[in-house]
Amino acid sequence: MKKAIITTSIVVLVILAAIYFFPFNGESGENEGTKTQNRTQTNSIKLPDPVITGGMPLMEALQNRKSSRTFSDKKIELQMLSDLLWAANGVNRKESGKRTAPTANDTRALDVYVIMEDGTYLFNPDEHSIEKISDKDLREFAGRQDFVKKAPVNLIYVSDYSKLKSGSEKEIYSGSHAGFIGQNVYLFCASAGLNTVIRAWVDKDVLKKEMNLKEDQYIILAQTVGFPE
Length: 229
Ligand SMILES: Cc1cc2nc3c(=O)[nH]c(=O)nc-3n(C[C@H](O)[C@H](O)[C@H](O)COP(=O)(O)O)c2cc1C
Hints:
Blueprint: H1 2-21, H2 32-43, E1 44-46, H3 58-64, H4 78-89, E2 91-93, E3 98-99, E4 110-116, E5 119-124, E6 129-134, H5 147-150, E7 153-160, H6 169-192, E8 195-199, H7 204-210, E9 217-226
Antiparallel strand pairs: 1-6, 2-3, 4-5, 4-7, 5-6, 7-9, 8-9
Helix pairs in contact: 3-6, 4-6
The structure holds flavin mononucleotide.
């Protein structure tokens, strides 16, 4: 009798251990934190180091800066995307994490999202990486002009109002932050032989929904980038 009780107890313990270590949903017995970390790692693409030497002399880039609305569907390679995003809002002082574009009180309240054919990404300046937030091609929601759907890259400038103080600051500062980044992109494009145009003509409510943004996140402007046709 005693032997039977011991055997049954061992069997029960083995079954409980198996359930703990091999849950039936196919995931390992890791905690939530580890799972989130892995998911982030899986969705995150480390960009090659940006090439921060060379390029067109600044005065020539200013002379060539312009809005263009014709784009070929040629893709932008990862190195060029890396350079573009670094120019837009990358870290240019590693010791402080400060960026190529200024922000009020160093709030860093403006995020750059990248809409491409294969999905939508959030640029992480600190890691110099992009993190996929959607597998869908959201270009059809990225603007009301036809070229938006054809161009390979649409940058979406999203302000996080929770990082800004109340009142008019939120709107004024958000517009300024997007403007600085937009001009960085204009100058990079002039130097790199890319076409670009900054855009306000976006159905922001629809795009916000499609991008699954939080209540406190507001789309300020978009900017299309691609090769000339
Ligand atoms: C805040 C802002 C919003 C704009 N919105 C649009 C837009 O929705 N669509 C567009 O084609 N151009 C847009 N533009 C680009 C302007 O039309 C363009 O800058 C202007 O015609 C001057 O041309 P340039 O940039 O070549 O100097 C916008 C520019 C700014 C600054």
